[in-house]
Amino acid sequence: MVVAFNKDRSSSSFCLPVAYGDPYVGVKDPKTGKWGFVNLKGKTVIKSRYRSVGAFAHGLAPVVNDEGKWGYIDEKGKTVIDFVYDYAGAFQYNGLAQVDQDGLCRLIDTTGAQATDVVLT
Q1: How would you classify residue 30: left for phi > 0, otherwise alpha for psi between -120 and 50, otherwise beta?
Q2: Considering the domain boundaries, does residue 100 fall inside one?
Q3: Dihedrals phi, psi of 37, to nearest 5 degrees
Q4: Residue 77 placed within a domain
Q5: Distance CA 25, CA 27 (A)
Q6: Average pLDDT over residues 47-72
Q7: Strand 104-108 vs strand 60-64: parallel, antiparallel, or unpaired?
Q8: Res. 16 pLDDT band, cuts 50 70 90
Q9: Whole-angstrom distance, CA of residue 115 vs CA of residue 43
Q10: In the chain, how many domains are there?
């Protein structure tokens, strides 16, 4: 499902698909090209300041900063896992997310700690 809030397509932001239970929808500001989040009523809750965003899960969303690094923010927009990754996926039902850093793929938990000793290459 895609949520669109503006009837005037010329001023409409691009929306990410909404997964069941997501509290916010990622939207792209057409003027700046930056991504942020709105709630399901269309109210901005996290300003558009990221190059890219992923879906919220377990209270966190992966986002890309201006330097092209991925990190995670909480539902208030606060950085909770630093921007150090080349890629960061959304957290899954088990509370783990895939991240890539320096050519290595790892699983981390919601604190940013490596979840296993296994490093995928």
Answers
A1: alpha
A2: no
A3: -135, 145
A4: yes
A5: 6
A6: 95
A7: unpaired
A8: low
A9: 35
A10: 1
Tell me which residue range forms the domain holding 53.
9-89
List Cα–Cα distances, 107 to 51, 75, 77, 82, in angstroms: 23, 22, 23, 15
Domain annotation covers residue 47: yes
What is the CATH classification number for the domain harbouring 28?
Answer: 2.40.10
Does pLDDT of 99 surpass 90? Answer: yes
Q: What pLDDT is attached to residue 74?
A: 96
- For residue 8, name the pLDDT band (cuts at 50, 70, 90): very low
| Residue 108: Cβ within 10 Å count | 22
Between CA 86 and CA 92, with CA 68 as vertex, the angle to 5 degrees is 50
pLDDT reported for residue 72:
98
